[in-house]
Design brief:
The complex is a heterotrimer. By secondary structure, chain A is an alpha+beta fold. Chain A has 25 helices and eleven strands. In chain A, the strands form three sheets. Chain A has a four-stranded antiparallel sheet. A four-stranded antiparallel sheet of chain A has the order 9-8-10-11, with helices on one face. Chain A has a three-stranded antiparallel sheet with strand order 1-2-3. In chain A, helix 3 crosses helix 7 and helix 6 (142-169) crosses helix 7. Chain C is mostly helical. Classes of the chains: A alpha+beta, B alpha/beta, C mainly alpha. Chains in contact: A-B, B-C.
Chain lengths: 649, 299, 129
């Protein structure tokens, strides 16, 4: 009887096929729609045949269908395959047979792999046939087809092994499915929760620094969802392969350890049950706290959020474990948990050390101060070269930064309360002489700190380290475009190298001369300078009305009239007092008390002083051309005399 | 020989079996009785190598059962609710078992299905409960096990079928010296077919004996005297239970039949009758402390 | 050949022993005749073969049968002991009945008369044959 001694049992495979083969069938059908059929459809539409050009990424054909299949089929398959562990009678039957768990495991797990891989292989073959017969070389290559197939196989098999792993941990199929997704998303979720909560608990905790965009790397699930946009590179291959092998092996180990009576128990291992219970309690506590803090900024509500989250999580976990909703008498664990958390919270207060720690001036090598922490992480080469701010090193400037930082610390109460007012980020990265880094992040109302920002932002060093214009080398510039992106677009292009050189010099001079107040007041205007550095790369900066050197030269050369809005473009201006400090109001043209400016000289003066950000006066500029208008503002400092005078009355 | 020594098993901290000791001789039909929840099914699943004990040894011919493939090949377990793969026909199920069990006999399978008139190509799950059980029996016997473990096996079978099934089982015991381990809460069923019984109560085997020995040891006596009942006799005998029905005394006495009879006759009773006990009665009278459990069994 | 009462209180094994003894004593089973195999009996009555085995062992011990390995069980020709057993049994039953009769007020001499009468009729009956 050689077949009976052999390792391979035909009948088990047959049984698996009969019970789960349909999933594979559904999978194939879905993929047929997403790929071969879609390709044929696009191809038959001759006008739009270029839609076949997907940049070599076949995931872009009906990605929604593909991604839904990729993230559901492997989990579904694991759920149905390992149902024999979760249905009591099936478990008893299968394990009363003279088959070792080893053998059962490999039969079931590997059949699943086969059911996952087979559809991809069939689709790959069919796409290859279509590819060869329709000559699709112009749109994508054979390599791209194999990239698709390989990635899809590795990704789905990896998710599938995660499903197997969870199958060993639980005894209920529904819990199996839910828990698998939670397991897959857990690294991302817990990181988010912990960081958010540290941000709430610790004044100055640089949450955005820790959440720097590479979170999807932490979960295979998010990686798969991102397949449309991101390449699946060799590091991904390595991580996914290791994860797959690891989970496959671990699952076998846990299968052997598993007690079969765990069927119909939500958590199969007794020791895991408390971990599950308190884990859920902890996570929902963090979630509740984060939710209420983010939406209400109120200590009372935050505490409520923590408590409500913990209580809810505890009872939900208990309900799942006990398989009944009558669990409200089991509060012993919750009481113990609460005590521990209170002790933990008290312990946290001592972390004032963290909050109040600012390095001493003589320890600091350099400091980076910015309002946009994501600068730190953007990987784009060009962006890094021209936009990313660089740390400052001059002692005076470091001193100014420390002063600002100290003031922010002193204002802890104010800054934590006033989160709902318009705020800015203050992001500090100190690099110490001993190589360590101290990173802090605050949200604050920058206006309150004008006095502290002014010396820093006006310093030559700071401007040189943060403004891209100082990193531009004359010879790299191909052209410079001056333009206006208001309702009436204007644009002048300067290709002449000598002129480029002059403009760059003028701009540097103007930027260095810019005051802190003007920088804030004019920020966000619609007149820009675009420095074209070739290869589709361009550096743009705002052309402020105060850049007199540049503007003087441009006017002289006749570019200004062509590139910017001048008094000649404006028909008239309507000014009224702005009662809404945060935004625009709708102006009724006939409202009494409004000031209508038609004098060209006044219009010119208004243009030179109008800022884009809400201020005391709102001014609607009506253009000559078309029926267009644009809103500007004046604050008391910048409003021309004739406006101020008008409204004094 | 099947042996369980100091076996303990608990579920999530709740003890199901504690310190179970049990011996089953080869070729014997061993009946396990116990109230609902006494741990019968747990014990059977341990013996079938499905569950794993926390402590103690479970051995067949001296070898541990758990994950022991060569042993499990000789053991067949039929659970209280026989399970078959969804949508499987009897024939498909038979093919499955044929692939799994080394000693499977096609010959026997066809003989048995013939005897019982079973349709091979019907989905098992569409059959009635009784027929499903019969399918389980046929599949079990066709895989020619040396040990057959049956959990509440005859539930749902009509009397004719019951007799037929018993007959087939007995044939295997007689011919191949198959051992049967059978659990039931029906004492009559056990009494008919078993040669050994074990009674499981609160997670332990409290009695394990040969059925005849149990019966030979306890007797029901009806006596009546003209005058008072002789005190001396009452003291001499090992009386488990006394009951007065009119002038007739009903005694449950432990001891050898001949000796007991002689002792009574010496006192010249007017009426004297000595009867063997049924299994039910033995349990009720002999095991007063677990009497309630027995009553549960008989309900 | 014989019937077993599966519903009876009397253990099956005892019933078997008694029935077989009866058959041997009454010489329905002749000397050296082979007894039915365990298998046959088990199947015929749907009873545990171990019980039958046990009954045979008991009969062998009491000297009613002998077994030959691999062949089966046979009636022992010198089963005189069988009669002794029966005598003992009858005596016991008589004892019981006599006791009852005495209690009912039948005198000893009446009983003696009865015994003589039964003995006479038996002889007479024998002559009639």
């Amino acid at each position: 009887m050689p077949s009976k001694i052999s390792w391979f049992s035909k009948e088990i495979i047959l049984q698996i096929g009969r019970s789960t083969g349909w999933i594979s069938l559904v999978y194939i059908l879905g993929l047929v729609f997403a790929l071969p059929l879609r390709i044929l459809m696009i191809y038959s539409d001759e006008k739009n045949r270029t839609n076949l050009n997907v940049g070599g990424n076949l995931f872009r054909f009906d990605f929604t269908i593909q991604v839904v299949l990729f993230i559901t089929v492997p989990i579904l398959l694991s759920v149905f395959l390992f149902r024999y562990l979760h249905v009591k009678q099936a478990t008893d039957l299968v394990h009363s047979l003279p088959l070792k768990r080893n053998k059962l495991y490999h039969h079931y797990a590997l059949s699943g792999v086969f059911f996952l891989v087979l559809p991809i292989v069939l689709i790959t073959v069919s796409v290859l046939i279509i590819y060869a017969s329709l000559h699709l070389q112009t749109y994508f290559g054979v390599r791209d087809i194999f990239y698709w197939a390989g990635t899809a196989i590795l990704a789905t098999v990896c998710l599938y092994t995660a499903g197997i792993f969870i199958a060993m941990m639980t005894g209920i199929s529904a819990v199996h499915a839910v828990l698998t997704y939670i397991f897959l998303i857990f690294p991302v979720g817990i990181t988010l929760l912990v960081v958010y909560n540290l941000k709430i608990l610790l004044y100055g905790f640089p949450s955005d620094y820790y959440l720097r965009g590479n979170l999807d790397k932490m979960s295979p699930l998010t990686e798969v969802i991102g397949l449309e946009g991101k390449p699946f590179d060799w590091s991904n291959v390595l991580v996914f392969s290791i994860l797959t092998i690891l989970l496959y092996g671990l699952s076998l180990i846990f299968y052997k350890k598993r007690n079969l009576e765990a069927a119909s128990e939500p958590i199969a291992f007794v020791k895991l049950r408390s971990i599950f219970k308190y884990g859920v309690t902890f996570c929902t506590m963090l979630l509740g706290g984060a939710y209420f803090s983010e939406t209400l900024y109120n200590l009372g509500w935050s505490i409520f959020g923590y408590v409500a989250g913990a209580v809810m999580g505890y009872f939900v976990a208990e309900m799942v474990l006990q398989k009944t909703w009558r669990v409200f008498r089991h509060i012993k664990g919750l009481v113990i948990y609460t005590v521990i958390m209170i002790l933990f919270a008290i312990g946290f207060q001592t972390l004032g050390i963290y909050e109040n720690h600012i390095p001493k001036q003589d320890e600091i090598k350099s400091v980076l101060l910015t309002d946009n922490p994501s600068n730190e992480v953007i990987q784009d080469h060009f962006y890094k070269n021209y936009y990313a701010p660089k740390p400052i090193r001059e002692q005076d400037n470091i001193k100014s930064v420390l002063k600002l930082h100290e003031q922010i610390l002193a204002d802890k109460q104010i800054n934590q309360k006033n989160k709902s007012t318009p705020y800015k980020m203050a992001f500090f990265v100190y690099e110490l002489k001993n190589g360590q880094k101290v990173i802090r992040e605050y949200q604050l109302n920058q206006k309150l700190y004008d006095d502290f920002y002014k010396p820093i932002y006006e310093s030559t060093e700071y401007k040189e380290k943060t403004e891209g214009i100082f990193r531009v080398r004359d010879k790299d510039v191909e052209t410079i475009a001056i333009g206006n992106y208001g309702p009436v677009g204007k644009r002048a292009i300067i290709p002449e190298p000598s002129e480029i050189k002059t403009i760059l010099a003028m701009l540097k001079k103007d930027v260095l001369a810019r005051t802190y107040e003007d920088g804030v007041y004019f920020k966000g205007g619609s007149e820009t300078v675009e420095i074209n550095l070739g290869k589709n790369n361009q550096l743009s900066l705002e052309l402020l009305p105060t850049y007199t050197n540049t503007r003087g030269w441009l006017k002289e050369k006749g570019f200004l009239e062509r590139a910017t809005i001048t008094e000649n473009d404006i028909n008239y201006i309507l000014v009224h007092r702005n009662n809404n400090p945060n935004g625009k109001t709708i102006i009724d043209e006939n409202q009494p008390g409004n000031l209508k400016i038609t004098d060209k000289e006044h219009i010119r003066e208004a243009l030179a002083n109008a800022g884009p950000n809400p201020g005391s006066y709102e001014a609607i500029f009506y253009f000559e051309q078309g029926n267009t208008q644009q809103a500007f503002f004046f604050d008391e400092d910048h409003a021309p005399d004739f406006i101020r005078d008008h409204f004094k009355k | 020989m099947i042996e369980m020594r100091n076996v303990r098993k608990s579920f999530a901290g709740v003890e199901a079996l504690n310190n179970v000791n049990l011996t089953i001789q080869k070729g014997s039909i061993y009946g396990l009785i116990g109230s609902n929840g006494a741990g019968k099914t747990t014990l059977m699943k341990l013996l079938s190598g499905i569950y794993r004990q926390e402590e103690g040894q479970i051995t067949i011919e001296g070898k541990p059962v758990f994950e022991n493939i060569s042993l499990k090949d000789k053991v067949f377990y039929i659970s209280d609710y026989p399970y078959f793969f969804p949508h499987y026909t009897t024939k498909q199920m038979a093919q499955f078992y044929k692939d799994i069990y080394k000693n499977w006999s096609d010959d026997r399978f066809f003989k048995l299905t013939n005897v019982f008139g079973l349709e091979l190509n019907k989905r098992i799950q569409s059959l009635s409960k009784g027929w499903q059980r019969l399918v389980a029996f046929i599949l079990a016997l066709s895989s020619m096990p040396e040990i057959l473990i049956l959990d509440e096996p005859l539930d749902g079978l009509d009397p004719v079928m019951r007799k037929k099934v018993k007959n087939v089982l007995i044939q295997d015991v007689a011919e191949r010296e198959m051992t049967i381990f059978i659990s039931s809460h029906n004492l009559r069923e056990i009494e008919d077919i078993c040669d050994h019984v074990g009674i499981l109560h609160k997670g332990a085997i409290i009695i394990e004996k040969e059925l005849d020995e149990l019966k030979a040891d306890t007797h029901k006596i009806q006596v009546a005297y003209k005058e008072k009942v002789p005190e001396a006799l009452m003291k001499k005998m090992n009386i488990l239970h006394t009951e007065k029905r009119g002038s007739v005394f009903l005694l449950i006495v432990r001891g050898e039949e001949d000796i007991v009879a002689k002792q009574v006759r010496e006192t010249h009773p007017v009426i004297f009758d000595l009867l063997p006990l049924t299994l039910e009665e033995i349990f009720i009278y002999e095991m007063g402390d677990i009497g309630y459990a027995i009553k549960n069994i008989m309900v | 050949m014989f019937e077993l009462d599966l519903r009876s209180r009397k253990p099956i094994y005892e019933q078997l022993v008694d029935k077989l003894k009866e058959l041997i004593i009454n010489e329905i089973l002749k000397s050296d005749e082979q007894l039915p195999s365990v298998r046959t009996l088990a199947q015929q009555f749907t009873i545990n073969p171990n019980t039958i085995q046990k009954a045979y062992r008991e009969l062998e011990m009491q000297g009613f049968i002998y077994s030959i390995k691999g062949k089966g069980n046979f009636v022992n020709p010198s089963s005189k002991k069988a009669d002794l057993e029966k005598v003992e049994k009858v005596k016991k039953e008589l004892e019981k009945l006599i006791l009852e009769a005495l209690y009912l007020g039948i005198s000893t001499s009446e009983l003696m008369d009865l015994i003589r009468y039964v003995d006479d009729t038996k002889r007479g009956g024998g002559k009639d044959d």
